[in-house]
Structure formats: structure tokens, C-alpha cells
């Protein structure tokens, strides 16, 4: 269960002191960015905090932040002068908009029901035919493609069975992201047909201009011991058309195929809610943090097909490193906050 006064998020900044040419070893230092933590502080009434924290470019220097389970309510002050959160609801998804030309502080958007209460199902809902009316979204990754002008958001499809059960992966297509108010957005949804409860095609997403493909990192939960990270790809035109017959998995023999039963393990750990992006010094990198170890990892590669070189980036500090009390997940990079090519900003989530 979530302790509403325990969920928080942390923002770190990494300085890349030097990078080996082979991208096999990165030397760095890291610390918490107190300024950005203040910018994303809880509101006195409304948004009190959330997990996921994916950011993606909408236009110019305006960015969309995707939030997962969101604490909603108000802040109150104790007799000792401390501020505490009084959580009255937890929508499964909200969004924030940040215009970096104006401020680092996001404007948070929450959907409400007709009676004024928060819509607990979240900001986006499945619009295609679904088999279970309890399905809801955890929006975890996304990008905007200039060719279509649309924003594409990857969502874990969740049902409240045994608390939290993922049954598939959907793509949410926002057709008018230039509209400044997300509550006025129009969108449609599509189930990635190859996805399932054991093949989660939603970990991270990136567009590779060199070969014209959209790459989606996925978790194959059937591979021991706890699942592995695999890579899928789809031509840009097919992705825009939501033609999932063109989505292929990289197999162990080096071929690409629709059948993912023999998918090649890129990284021998599952990193859901990760970040996949290009860095001028690192090349392709995947930032990840899984539930089994309180350490943010950095995986780098010259090409998305691998090989991937992995090293520990940041050890979660106490008390959140205590795995009997806390879980840590959702390491996300935010290049828009980087002050130079030698730094990058990331977030992660401790929860209890």
C-alpha cells in the first residue's frame, strides 16, 4: 500500500567528467538538484506529487510531463510548523506543462468529474474496444514525431487485479498537441497487438533518424530470472498508421520478426518506465531503475541493436535504499534541463 506521506520524487544532476571513446565507461559525479525539487513542490491545494515523471517535447521549449498515480488534496501546517500532505484522492494519471521560456514550474492538469471530484481513472482513457471496464492507463513514455505533428504516448494497460496487474500496452495519439490546454486535447488509442501481461512493449521509446524506425524497449517477463529488456522497432510510417503488423522484435539470431518468443536479451534486467535517448557524448543511452536494487543504471550503445554496456550511475540514499520499507523505480532523464552536453538531469521515485 502507498503511504501518502512517503511517496516522493528525487531529481539528480550528473556531471560527465570524461567519456571513453568506446562508450564502455563513463566517469561522473552526481547530486540532488534542490532548485528543481522546489520547482516541482506540492501545491497548497490540488497536485501533491506523483510518480512516472516522463517529460517530452511538445513544441519550441514547451514540454509535457506525464504523471502516473497522483496524490491530490491539500497541504496543512502542523503545530510544529511542518507542512504535511492531506491526500483525499489518487487519480491514476495527470499531466503537467512546462514552458521553459517562462518558468521551470509546471502547470498541473487534472481531469474532474461533473461533481468536481478528480477523475480517478486518470487523464487518458482507452477509447478503442476493451474487454475489461476496469482498465486504466499508466502513461510512461512518449515522443512527438514532426512528420505527423502528433504526440505518441506509451501506456501500461492496468487492471486492479491483485492490486496492480499489467495486461498489455497501448499507444495514445494526441492529434492537437499545439493546443496549450491539455484538457482540450483530442486523442485516440490503439492496443499494440503483440503486447500482453508478459510482453510489456512500453518501457521507453525513441525515433532513430538514421534508419527511419521508431524503437520501443520492452520487457519479456518470461525470460529468467525476473524478465529481461528486449528491443522492438517499427517503420515510422507504420507507427503513424498504428500498423502493428509491422512491429518486429530483435531475435537471438540477429533477425527481426513479428514472433517475439525468441527475443534477444539486450539487458539482463527488466527496466520498465525507463528513458531511451541520444546523447552527443554517450551515444544511445538507456536510464533504468528496477524494483530489485536501489541503484540507477546507465546503459550505453553505439546502435540500438546493441551491444549495451551497463554501469551503476547512482545509489539511492538512505532511508529509501531500505528495500524492506521502500521500492525505487522509474528513472527518467530530462535533457531539457541540462546546462551543457556534459550534464544531464534525471528523476527517480522512492515509494512505500
Rg, alpha carbons = 19 Å
In sequence order, what are the helices and strands, one letter per element? EEHEEEEEEEEEEEEHEEEEEEEE
Task: Give the biggest sheet.
Answer: 5 strands, antiparallel
What class do helices, strands and sheet pairing give? mainly beta
What can you tell me about this protein's structure?
The structure is a single chain. The protein has 352 residues and is mostly beta strands. The chain is built from two helices and 22 strands. It has helices spanning 34-39, 236-240, and strands at residues 10-19, 26-32, 45-59, 62-77, 83-89, 94-99, 107-109, 136-144, 151-159, 165-174, 187-191, 199-208, 213-220, 228-235, 248-250, 256-257, 275-279, 283-288, 295-301, 309-315, 327-333, 343-351. The strands form five sheets. Strands 3, 4, 5, 6 and 7 form a five-stranded antiparallel beta sheet that branches. β13 (213-220) and β14 (228-235) form a beta hairpin. The longest helix is centred in the N-terminal third of the chain and has 6 residues, at 34-39. It is globular. The protein starts with 9 loop residues before the first strand and ends with a strand.
Amino acid at each position: 500500500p502507498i503511504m501518502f506521506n512517503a511517496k516522493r520524487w528525487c531529481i539528480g544532476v550528473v556531471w560527465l567528467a570524461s567519456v571513453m571513446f568506446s562508450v564502455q565507461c563513463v566517469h561522473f559525479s552526481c547530486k540532488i538538484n534542490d532548485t528543481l525539487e522546489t520547482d516541482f513542490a506540492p501545491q497548497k491545494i490540488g497536485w501533491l506529487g506523483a510518480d512516472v515523471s516522463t517529460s517530452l517535447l511538445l513544441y519550441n521549449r514547451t514540454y509535457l510531463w506525464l504523471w502516473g498515480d497522483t496524490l491530490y488534496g491539500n497541504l496543512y501546517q502542523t503545530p510544529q510548523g511542518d507542512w504535511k500532505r492531506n491526500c483525499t484522492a489518487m487519480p491514476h494519471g495527470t499531466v503537467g506543462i512546462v514552458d521553459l521560456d517562462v518558468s521551470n514550474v509546471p502547470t498541473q492538469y487534472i481531469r474532474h468529474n461533473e461533481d468536481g471530484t478528480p477523475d480517478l481513472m486518470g487523464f487518458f482513457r482507452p477509447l478503442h474496444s476493451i474487454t475489461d471496464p476496469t482498465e486504466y492507463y499508466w502513461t510512461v513514455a512518449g515522443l512527438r514525431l514532426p512528420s505527423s505533428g502528433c504526440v505518441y504516448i506509451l501506456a501500461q494497460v492496468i487492471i486492479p487485479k491483485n492490486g496492480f496487474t499489467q495486461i498489455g500496452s497501448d499507444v495514445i495519439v494526441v492529434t492537437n498537441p499545439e493546443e496549450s490546454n491539455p484538457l482540450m486535447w483530442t486523442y485516440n488509442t490503439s492496443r499494440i497487438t503483440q503486447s500482453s501481461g508478459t510482453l510489456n512493449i512500453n518501457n521507453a521509446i525513441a525515433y532513430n533518424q538514421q534508419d527511419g524506425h521508431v524503437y520501443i524497449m520492452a520487457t519479456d517477463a518470461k525470460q529468467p530470472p525476473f524478465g529481461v529488456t528486449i528491443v522492438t522497432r517499427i517503420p515510422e510510417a507504420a507507427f503513424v498508421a498504428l500498423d502493428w503488423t509491422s512491429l518486429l522484435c530483435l531475435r537471438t539470431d540477429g533477425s527481426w520478426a513479428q514472433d517475439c518468443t525468441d527475443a534477444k536479451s539486450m539487458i539482463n534486467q527488466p527496466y520498465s518506465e525507463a528513458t531511451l535517448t541520444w546523447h552527443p557524448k554517450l551515444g544511445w543511452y538507456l536510464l533504468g531503475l528496477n524494483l530489485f536494487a536501489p541503484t540507477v543504471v546507465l546503459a550505453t550503445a553505439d546502435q540500438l541493436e546493441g551491444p549495451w554496456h551497463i554501469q551503476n550511475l547512482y545509489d539511492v540514499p538512505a532511508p529509501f535504499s531500505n528495500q524492506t520499507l521502500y521500492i525505487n523505480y522509474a528513472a527518467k532523464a530530462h535533457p531539457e534541463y541540462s546546462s551543457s552536453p556534459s550534464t544531464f538531469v534525471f528523476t527517480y521515485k522512492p515509494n512505500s
